Amino acid sequence: MRRPIVAGNWKMHGTRAENARLIEELTSRFPDQSAAECLVCPPFVYLQEVGRMLRDTPIGLGAQDVCAEAQGAFTGEVSAAMLKDVGCGNVIVGHSERRWIYHESDQLVARKFAAVQAKSLAPILCVGEQLSEREQGRTEEVVARQLDAVLSLCGVGALESGVIAYEPVWAIGTGHTATPEQAQQVHAFIRERIAARDAKIALGTRILYGGSIKPGNAGELFSQPDVDGGLIGGASLKAEEFLAILAAAGSR
Ligand code: PGA
User: In the structure, what pLDDT confidence band is assigned to residue 161 with cuts at 50, 70 and 90?
Assistant: First the structure.
């Protein structure tokens, strides 16, 4: 049985005061027992402080990105070792905003995935097609290419501790959620593609959906057999919404 995950991607939002308020609201109202795993991914500069607030709570800490290099003269970059040092357990790699706005290639994303695993952190690999690619019937081709880049570099064994997030680009921050059927179809495709390399690993790999998840649509999305939770953007900044989504994942 795969334990669902609900991960909050705060993106470039927040101030120290807002973060403190959000964490206070989340921790004070966090359920005594959550069947779903929960984590938040604040911007780099706030990781250490938010991590301190989360100590001794059931909420984990993740980062939104990482440098593919281990260390050295890479101005402005942050290494996986640094993320581990400040208490991160997870790192998002290949978010569509990194791929499309900052032109990160499949190969670079795969190297980031490897860098995260080399430090025994759990990567959350984002994959997903743009609207034009879906309209051209190329969704599976695009997702397969993004996934294969990681499988080729790191091997299927790398997914034992890794998580995948299917995030159709057209659904992110737009209010246009994929239908549960659309999500399930791509999730099943991803699982089958992993199964072609290793059936046991495929069964255990958690595949999250991301893109305009709200309390009102979370339950239906999470009830799909291959949807193992969600990567939440906008709704993760509101404690009430994020906790409602967590509850939906937990009662799956
Ligand atoms: P959204 O973002 O929930 O605001 O659509 C999801 C994401 O980008 O991870």
Answer: confident
